[in-house]
Amino acid sequence: MQALLARSWVKPLLFVLCTLPAFWLVGAGLLNQLGANPAEALIRGLGDWTLRFLCLVLLVTPLRHHTGWTVLARWRRMLGLFVFFYASLHLLAYAWLDMGFDLVELLPDIVKRPFITVGMLAWGLLLALAATSFNRAIKAMGARRWQRLHRAVYAVAVLGVLHFFWMRAGKQLFGEVAVYAALLGALLGWRVWWRFRARVPA
What we know:
Layout: H1 2-5, H2 10-30, H3 38-67, H4 73-98, H5 103-112, H6 114-131, H7 135-141, H8 143-150, H9 152-169, H10 175-199
Helix pairs in contact: 2-3, 2-4, 3-4, 3-10, 4-6, 5-6, 6-9, 7-8, 9-10
């Protein structure tokens, strides 16, 4: 399986597959196929895909450890950038479709509503991670400092679930929130277990 995953065409194919949800959501919006409230459906859909790609990024390391497929590490950076891509589209859709790019209303709204404040904090961390995701940044910062910064993805996971929870709190709809919380909690919990296991003498 690893030999197949290492083929030169696999990563470009994965890139194309990662773009399909964005094309589908935007296309469905243009064709008026997103239901009675297309703006809300588009914003929500982009947020959902942000969380899904975040789960995929955090899945790479445990999957690599348990399968031995080291080739998976080559995909982590690209998947991480797709988390930022979908989070940015999510923010753009909110700023445009909900607020009409009106900064006079947009900035107070970020401060006034906690779930938007938390979402902006998560996006700010993702911006820092995306801006330093390249080899030059690693060399400039040093590997250890770079690794410390990129552990902020764990904070992004917590903030993302909190953002989703507060957003759904008004309607008392917590089913999907529980699913994402369980998935991300398990992926973060695996890292705690793996570190503890590595420190315990054999």
